Amino acid sequence: MKKKGFTKVLKNFTSETSIFVIMNLSIFKTNCINSIQTQVTWQAPSNIALIKYWGKHGEQLPKNPSLSFTLSSCISTTALDINPISKGTNISFDFYFEGQSKPEFHSKIEVFFKRILPYCPWIANHHITINSQNSFPHSSGIASSGSSMAALASCLVAAEELFDDHADQKASFLARLGSGSAARSINGPITVWGATESVKESSDFFAVPLSESDYHPIFNTYCDAILIIDQGQKKVSSTQGHRLMENHPFGVARFKQAFQNMVNLIKILEEGDLDAFISIVETEALTLHAMMMTGSPNYILMHPNTMEVIQSVWNFRQETKLPVCFTLDAGANVHLLYPQKDAFQIEDWIDHKLKAFCREGKIIKDKVGRGAKKV
Ligand code: DP6
Question: How many angstroms separate the alpha carbon of residue 180 from the centre of ligand 1?
Answer without folding.
Answer: 6
